[in-house]
Amino acid sequence: MTDPMPMDGKGPKVPPSYPPRTPPPQKKPVEAPRPEPSTKPVTSSVPLPRPGQARLETRRPRMSIRARRAANWALTGYPWVAGQAVGKVTAAVRGWGYAHPEDDALNKAVRLLVGAAAADEGRRISVHLADQDDMLLIAVLSHTSSQPDETILADLAAVPGTTSCGTDASDDGRRVWVVLSTERPRSRTTPAA
Questions:
Q1: Regarding beta strands 70-76 and 173-181, do their DSSP bridges make them parallel or antiparallel, or are they unpaired?
Q2: Strands 162-170, 70-76: pairing kind
Q3: Among 53, 138, 149, 151, whose CB has the most other CB atoms within 10 angstroms?
Q4: Is residue 35 a part of any domain in this protein?
Q5: pTM of the prediction?
């Protein structure tokens, strides 16, 4: 007769009713210290230089848009995405209920901004749109370390409805922006002679 369970000196061999003990997970490796930023911290209390004095170098703060309607899109850094950006910006502006600026002004402003950012030859650009007090802010970041090029400012200032425009470099990369008024343009009347 065969024995159904093998016996040894300690009793019958029975499979355990609990899972085998597993080793604890490995601890995470120690993280290397983070590098110190190469730029100087932002100083808000730096006085403006007098004529003939050198400007102190300060880092521009990161762009932040708070407490207002905003939209943004990340696009590839090619010049042909300007048409895509124009469509997205125009749809958002009309969706917010603004009839002005005209489509031609939005088209020209966005194409100039995207063209300037695409000329920096980065892999991506981001288009940011916000509104406040009947004004629209359109900002485009190139996400490269290119230096600001101010040649575009004259073209942006010529766009109808432009109240302000600018370009600068920050940690986010080069940014170019324009502020457009959403008020209906006033018709010009010529004085009677």
A1: unpaired
A2: unpaired
A3: 138
A4: no
A5: 0.63
